[in-house]
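Weekly sync notes, structure subgroup
Attendees: PM, AL, DS (notes)

Item 1: joint prediction request from the bench team. They want all two components modeled as one assembly rather than separately. Inputs as received:
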Amino acid sequence: MQKNRNVGIIGVGQSVYSSHREEVNQPEMIHEAVVEALANAGITLDDVDCIVHGNMELFEMVHQPDLWHTLGTGAYGKECLRVTTGGTTGATLVCAADHLVASGLHDVVMAIGFEKLQEGHTTGGITNMADPLWGRQLQTGALTGMTAAQMIDEFGEERAKQVAMKYRIIMDKHAMKNQKAHRRLGLEFDQADDLAVNSPALVGELRMIHMCSQSDGACVMIFASEEKARQWCDQPAWIKDHVTAHREEMFCLFGDAPVLSTHRYAAKKLFERCGIQNPREEIDVFEMYDPSSWWGSDWLREFLLLEGDEHLKMIENDEITIDGAFPVNPSGGVIASNPIGATAMVRVAEAALQIMGKADTHQVPRTVNQALASGFGGTMWTVLTLLTRHVPW
Amino acid sequence: MDAKYADSFVVEGKLALPYQYFAGRTGSRFITTIRDKKKIMGLKCDRCGKVFVPPRSTCERCFVDISNNWVDVKNTGTVTGFTVIRYKEPYQPFDPPYIQALILLDGADTPMVHIVKGIPVSQMQMGLRVKAVFAKKTTATIMDIDHFRPDVKDHVKLGYTYEELEIGMTASFSKTITETDVYLFAGISGDFNPMHMNEEFAKKTPFGTRIAHGALPQCLCAPVLGMKLPGLGTVALEITTRFKAPTYFGDTITCTGEIIEKLEDRKWVRMSLTWTNQDDKLVAEGKALVMPPQSS
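Output from the run, pasted for the record:
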């Protein structure tokens, strides 16, 4: 692989994530994150050449929101690009910004991901994705209990449920450290048994407590060429590589046979390309797009190319906590905050903050030389991004 | 059916997706002020001085937060652009034709879109002065302004002011004087003199036939002075007339006024008046002293 020139993340801004942001309209909410990102990078809007904007199509029932949002984005008179790739939108925005700067087309690019899930109707929007002839009448939205069923099948009910709930409580403990997170419940490990029974069931063993939130919020990142990044930022987070993999069918097209997940495929490719032999050793923090604690637990195995019950042991042995051997989602992850068009970008933004040392109250207690971020979207869509502390290429 | 499309199934669908929109504090105050106080407010950017209506919490050009800088704007404004909707479509608020216009409210720098009623489509024009008509019943939407309609008071264009008038400016008014006019004038004035009313009697007068009252062609100076030159808002102070020839039934009389003197101390003007018939024969001549309208 060759890269034309290095790209550094020099600024991150996030609105507060919340179930309701009635006090601001869409451009006003975005404006909060834009102002914070510019201040974080120590630059002004005049320094920005191009603005990349994205969210879920029609989730707020607004056509061409990028044009409508100009007041908040500051895009007036600037080059613009709109990207919408479903749940991965935020991660794809990062890819697009990386390409725009790496290619030499622009020196400084601002990427904006946003969503106001409370204004729209998520399941209505997602249903449009299904094939109109054989899928649309049957589509039920984003909830699925299949992973829970599979994990229970493979590891036994007691162990699988305990792992999923422990993962959930670890994520809440992380969210409690992040002032901007949406759901900060203050859960304790001794509540696990109670929650496993009393949290409302959604689908099978997927319960409300396991599932991600529906949040309002915006995330903004500023990308600069190596020259500008070095000039303006003491410690940029450098983009080493990113891989996108997607497929239409969520499950195996031919039935129940084992299927190569896009997560495992993307991880394999990324690690091969970047010479990573042992991801658990070589990666210092992982911001995972974890829509539920069942998926979060299960997907560790895919992303880290593990076999057997290694991933369960990581959770059982507290390896994924903020001060553990392999910290996962010190921000609290998607279960805590999920403004979908921003969610996948928040993963990269949080990974970048960890490298820059700017994660504040949820900074992992170690030097982060290499950070991984994943984005996920329907039907099976993965974007993996690898960030480094040192200039990568 | 075209054979090419045979056996091709078409899925008929309709998507009805519920949604909400969080207006935010800025948008909320704009709408609730219209709803509760029947008042339109905007936000002003102190850096560039622009007033945004509808309000925007950020100035697009200066990219600064202006969300606390509320100013009142007027309920009146000027049409800066418009379109006429002539086709019928189920999602429209009214049956066509109707007018949608961009209205720049007095005190605002950005025009807002709304409906204009109360003017025929053929007479709609840019620059029209309009006034907001608030809805009787609130819906807490932008339709709490029900529509805009022509601001009639301002729509009347007053005549030339003293400053605008120049010596040599002229205007005229023509009318054919009919038997009906003469009989009506007799009724108005009480002057049933048989020289105007009785043909047999009139044959014995020096004119040999009935003629119009002298004051009838004379009063054709009124539309000249009052509606043309100087025009609406003029007060006539003095009119003198010397009659030169009779006006017969069916004659077309033209009264012409011309500015001949400007009286600086009183801001009055003196005008010459001539009345001629269809053969350019002088029927009467005289002078008028008038007070032109003041600038509105």
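Discussion: The mean pLDDT of chain B is 92.
Action: AL to compare against the crosslinking data before next sync.
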